Amino acid sequence: MSEGTLGERKTYLQLFAELTSTHKSVSRKDIIRGLVKKLEMEKDVTKADIYRNILEQMHETRDND
């Protein structure tokens, strides 16, 4: 994830840190699952928008590969 706001990058890095603390390696699918799980549980609209934006960026970068 190279683009995005500071909040999106911070959220992505926090999620990545959470996943690496429980997994030896973290795949793109692991990150997407983690984001979807957080999005489903999130009540804060601003945070939910951040999760959606990160998912959208991951989808866009996948399309450009």
Explain this structure to me?
The chain is mainly alpha-helical and 65 residues long. The chain has one domain (6-64): Single alpha-helices involved in coiled-coils or other helix-helix interfaces. Helix content is 78%, strand content 0%. It contains three helices and no strands. It has helices at residues 6-22, 28-41, 45-64. Helix 1 (6-22) crosses helix 3 (45-64) and helix 2 runs antiparallel to helix 3. The longest helix has 20 residues, at 45-64.
**Radius of gyration over alpha carbons?**
11 Å
What is the CATH architecture descriptor?
Answer: Up-down Bundle
CATH class: Mainly Alpha
Q: How many distinct beta strands?
A: 0
CATH topology: Single alpha-helices involved in coiled-coils or other helix-helix interfaces
Total count of domains? 1
Shape summary: globular
Uncertain spans, ≥5 residues at pLDDT below 50? Answer: none
Oligomer: single chain
Distance between the termini: 13 Å
Strand fraction band? under 5%
Mean pLDDT: 88
Largest beta-sheet details: none
Order of helices and strands: HHH
What's the tally of helices?
A: 3
Structural class: mainly alpha
Helix content: over 70%
Q: How are the SSEs ordered, and which strands pair?
A:
Layout: H1 6-22, H2 28-41, H3 45-64
InterPro entries: AriR (IPR024753)
Protein name: Biofilm development protein YmgB/AriR
Organism: Rahnella variigena
Concise synopsis of the structure shown:
The protein is an all-alpha fold. Helices cover 78% and strands 0% of the residues. Helix 1 (6-22) crosses helix 3 (45-64).
